[in-house]
């Protein structure tokens, strides 16, 4: 009970700080909306041409989940910078000498990030549906948002942990670059990996994001009983469990 | 029963295969209601010890009881009972004073109402009244430091740890901060354990000083006793007559350890307990019919104590 109360306190503090400058929530949407506008129509053509069986509706059902993963990835992996600032200002240490659960310091933070990305995702989906040709079953979209939430929880936990371990921007930045690019390219965010040559397809199967994305595409297509959705769900749950357990140990250990 | 009781606190850090001992087995006892300073140059192990005592760093070995709770077995209970104000403070410039204080109170388990009224009470007590709606970034250095202290006091702890409380403050804010620290003890009986590398701060505030160097306690006593023990006092005398004759005469006094005649003809005497030695010195000169022109007693500073104990001035490494 205490843990929930403390998590809620931290969550509210962090959310309050984000809402003080809501402009950044909108700016964070600029990238996926530009992809939607300037890249989406290309993908639609390519997909339709590569397989005439795919209609333009299906093309958007494949492309938009990729944008959601991309949004999740970019909003999440950079949060480690915030915790570096919190360490520098001594805020984290001030809270670590209170009796508050140190796990709550992590979970309260990552829940804030999950909520913000969910809000951004809904806006992105509305734009995709109203201005472009996205049509998808509502249940599938909701399931997709659950997968986005798990993805964000996992990636922010890892990013906070990495920020706390490195404790400075100069080490954290290169680490981030080292992770972001392969995570992005090997997930099939921009084009589905089914178009890839075999070797690339095989490598991409080492990336948990690929399974999550394939699962999201399946649910947007309404394939609720597909192996892809099952695989995506399992990957999302495992990744989140591992990431939070890892982040938790980093936040709790006494020798930071 | 002492409020801090530590035995053999030790902390080593592994660096590139080699082990560095930051703190090498420290025994500490602080009584309830004391103001104690940990004095030492930067890198002496002050902050490392403080971080161990406040549950932020696990000792490599040793044990401690802090405010009645066992440091290793029950760190959460220790956290409940102590306040800690880090050297870097702990405020986010982009938060509001009142809201952040209230959150701090709630992290200690206070209800929203109780936290709000405690925040107001502390703001009034620490001259921060009327600032609750301000952003932290708009506060002056002195206000910000007092806010840091307010964070450490939200749950009304019996024991407060202050790491380098007055670093970076202008002289006026420093003495203002000092009077607030004294008031804390006078009004609430709060025990205060602070670290500093400013000798005047330790001198002005503390009942007792623990001198730490290279991870070890090298001395502990009241500021005056430390000065008496580890630094000698110097008496400078001018006479209307032969200074060498006067020097020989004065050197016979028990209190005089060393004597010399300076180039300008003044006599320089190193003495113990100068305040009591002065009358004897003056009587001796009067008895020999040597008219005294001037006499001056220079009391030692903690700087001198420090130099004697560690072979360097605390500011050299600061």
How would you describe the overall organization of this protein?
Chain A has twelve helices and no strands. Chain A is mostly helical and 256 residues long. Chain A is elongated. In chain B, strand 7, helix 6 and strand 8 form a beta-alpha-beta unit. In chain B, helix 5 runs parallel beside helix 6 and helix 8 crosses helix 11. Chain B is elongated, with a radius of gyration of 24 Å. Chains A and B meet through helix 1, helix 5 and helix 6 of A and helix 2 and helix 3 of B.
Q: Please give the oligomerization state of what you see.
A: heterodimer
Report how far the terminal alpha carbons of chain A are from each other.
27 Å
Q: Rg of chain A from C-alpha positions?
A: 19 Å
What portion of residues of chain A is helical?
Answer: over 70%
Give the helix/strand class of chain B: alpha/beta
Low-confidence segments of chain A, given as residue ranges, are none
Detail the poorly predicted runs of chain B.
Answer: none
Counted by DSSP, the helix tally of chain B is 12
Largest sheet of chain B: 6 strands, mixed
The coarse overall form of chain B would be elongated
Mean pLDDT of chain A: 92
> What's the story with the biggest beta sheet of chain A?
none
């Amino acid at each position: 009970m205490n843990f929930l109360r403390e998590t809620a306190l931290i969550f509210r503090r962090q959310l309050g700080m984000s809402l003080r400058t809501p402009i950044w929530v909108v700016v964070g949407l600029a990238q996926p909306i530009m992809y939607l506008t300037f890249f989406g129509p290309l993908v639609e053509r390519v997909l339709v041409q590569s397989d005439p069986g795919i209609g333009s509706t299906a093309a958007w059902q494949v492309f938009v989940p990729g944008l959601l993963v991309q949004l999740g990835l970019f909003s999440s992996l950079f949060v480690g910078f915030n915790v570096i600032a919190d360490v520098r200002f001594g805020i984290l240490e001030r809270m670590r000498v209170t009796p508050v659960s140190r796990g709550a310091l992590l979970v309260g933070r990552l829940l804030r990030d999950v909520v913000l990305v969910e809000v951004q995702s809904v806006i992105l989906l509305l734009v995709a549906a109203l201005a472009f040709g996205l049509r998808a079953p509502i249940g599938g979209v909701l399931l997709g948002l659950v997968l986005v939430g798990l993805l964000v929880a996992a990636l922010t936990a890892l990013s906070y942990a990495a920020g706390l371990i490195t404790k400075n921007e100069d080490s954290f930045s290169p680490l981030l670059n080292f992770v972001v690019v392969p995570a992005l390219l090997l997930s099939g965010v921009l084009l589905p990996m089914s178009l890839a040559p075999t070797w690339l397809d095989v490598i991409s199967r080492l990336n948990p994001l690929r399974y999550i994305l394939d699962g999201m595409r399946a649910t947007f297509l309404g394939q609720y009983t597909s192996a892809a959705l099952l695989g995506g769900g399992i990957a999302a749950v495992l990744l989140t469990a591992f990431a939070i357990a890892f982040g938790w140990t980093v936040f709790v250990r006494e020798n930071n | 029963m002492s409020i801090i009781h530590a035995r053999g606190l030790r902390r080593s850090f592994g660096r590139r295969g080699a082990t560095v001992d930051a703190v090498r087995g420290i025994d500490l006892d602080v009584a309830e209601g004391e103001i104690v300073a940990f004095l030492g140059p930067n890198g002496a192990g002050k902050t490392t010890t403080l971080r161990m005592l406040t549950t932020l760093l696990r000792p490599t070995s040793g044990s401690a009881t802090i405010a009645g709770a066992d440091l290793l077995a029950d760190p959460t209970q220790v956290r409940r009972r102590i306040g800690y104000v880090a050297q870097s403070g702990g405020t986010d410039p982009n938060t509001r004073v009142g809201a952040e204080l209230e959150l701090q109170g709630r992290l200690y388990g206070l209800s929203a109402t109780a936290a709000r009224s405690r925040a107001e009470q502390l703001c009034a007590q620490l001259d921060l009244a009327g600032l609750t709606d301000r952003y932290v970034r708009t506060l002056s250095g002195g206000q910000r430091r007092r806010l840091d202290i307010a964070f450490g006091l939200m749950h009304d702890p019996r024991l407060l740890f202050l790491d380098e409380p007055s670093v970076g403050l202008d002289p006026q804010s420093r003495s203002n901060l000092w009077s607030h620290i004294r008031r804390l003890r006078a009004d609430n009986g709060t025990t205060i354990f602070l670290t500093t590398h400013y000798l005047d701060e330790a001198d002005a505030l503390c009942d007792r000083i623990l001198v730490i160097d290279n991870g070890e306690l090298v001395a502990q006593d009241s500021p005056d006793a430390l000065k008496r023990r580890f630094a000698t006092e110097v008496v400078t005398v001018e006479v209307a007559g032969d200074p060498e004759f006067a020097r020989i005469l004065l050197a016979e006094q028990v209190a005089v350890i060393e004597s010399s005649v300076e180039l300008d003809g003044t006599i320089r005497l190193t003495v113990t307990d100068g305040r009591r030695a002065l009358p004897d010195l003056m009587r001796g000169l009067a008895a020999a019919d040597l008219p005294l022109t001037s006499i001056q007693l220079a009391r030692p500073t903690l700087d001198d104590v420090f130099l004697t104990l560690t072979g360097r001035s605390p500011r050299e490494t600061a």
